[in-house]
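Please study the protein below:
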Amino acid sequence: MPLLLDLIYSLFQALAMSILICL
């Protein structure tokens, strides 16, 4: 399931960005 993997990767990237902004 490449689509699901891409979705999870996108979500993880957004989460990492949020953490960096909070720091």
User: Anything to note?
Assistant: The longest helix spans residues 2-22. The mean pLDDT is 94. DSSP finds one helix and no strands in the chain. Residues 15 and 21 are 10 Å apart (CA to CA).
